[in-house]
Amino acid sequence: MDQLIDEVANAYLHPQERLPDERTPLNVLAEEFSLSALKVRKLLVTAGVYDSPIYRRVQELYAVGKTVKEIQRLTSLSAASVSGYLPYRKTIYKLEDRTVLAERLQRYRERKQAVQKVKEQWMYGTEENVIEAVWNAVCRFEGYSFETVQGLRFHYKVRGKELFFSRKEKSVTRATLDKAVKTVIELQRQRKEISGPKKLNCFGASYLYPVFIRIGLISETQFKSAGYYG
Questions:
Q1: Is 43 exposed, middle or buried (0-12, 13-18, 19+ CB in 10 A)?
Q2: 172-173, strands of its sheet edge to edge
Q3: Of 135, 138, 224, 213, whose CA–CA distance to 188 is shortest?
Q4: What is the mean pLDDT of the chain?
Q5: 19-55 pLDDT per residue, tens
Q6: How far apart are CA 54 and CA 81, in angstroms?
Q7: Which residue, 16, 92, 107, 227, is the most exposed by fewest CB within 10 angstroms?
Q8: Are 182 and 174 in contact (CB under 8 A)?
Q9: For 11-15, 26-30, 157-161, 223-227, which range has the lowest pLDDT when averaged over its residues?
Q10: Predicted confidence (pLDDT) per residue in 199-215, tens digit
């Protein structure tokens, strides 16, 4: 549990480059760790890194001995919301709960490492290295909840060398994905802005585009970088 708290706090305090805010939004962290936003907030409160006017109000009331029900009445918050603004007092969980948390933490770390690998290969590797790193990252994000430019939520499954998207009947092959990666490489080599899915010029672009953003293939940092493709 302590490891999960540390990882969530670190992800909150050090947002990814694609996020403009100083702190990672709770809904993004919820997606990353497969937790509810309320639980994420409670973990951040426990870590001592969360702050907001409502949080301070709840803490003040709790510090003077107010019960959860009394805080509810004074703040108009639900019991679950009040609890979310209070730290965990016990970190003892059932065995199955600890197993689930461990799996989520492991999955988060593997995805984080895969994204870092994409960045490293972009800076120092060959085109083939980048393509392979992207495919590995895409595989790691199987089941992750993405959102299209139009705001439609989706996820995908990896079967062999094909991606099956929840909102699309036909699959996207590894060959198509590799072609899209090469397009990104060429566009950024030419310092051209990749402003939307159409720039990928391939089948399934509306789904690959948000995936590429999440794994760090498309980002302002890379666009301005003087790395391998600069």
A1: buried
A2: 156-159, 162-165, 172-173
A3: 224
A4: 85
A5: 555 788 888 888 888 888 888 898 899 888 889 999 9
A6: 10
A7: 92
A8: no
A9: 223-227
A10: 999 999 999 999 999 99
User: Which residues in 199-212 are b (16+ Cβ under 10 Å) and which e?
Assistant: bbebbbbbbbbbbb
Cα 110 from chain centroid (whole Å)? 12
Read off the pTM: 0.70
Q: Give the side-chain half-sphere CA count within 13 A for 44.
A: 28
Q: Which residue has the tokens 């970190």?
A: 91
Query: Which DSSP symbol is given to 49?
Result: -
- Per DSSP, 200 falls in state G
E-assigned strands of the chain? 146-147, 153-154, 156-159, 162-165, 172-173
- Identify residue 85 by its one-letter amino acid code: Y
Two structure tokens written together for 100 = 């689930």
Amino acid at position 82, single letter:
V
8 Å CB contact between 108 and 5: no
Kindly give, in sequence order, each residue whose CB lies less than 8 Å from that of residue 65, ignoring residues fewer than 6 positions away. none
Q: Taking CA 35 as the corner, what is the angle to CA 34 and CA 40, rounded to the nearest 5 degrees?
A: 130
Long-range Cβ pairs for the range 155-159 (8 Å, 24+)? 156/207, 156/211
Residue 185 corresponds to which tokens in the numbers above?
Answer: 């490489």
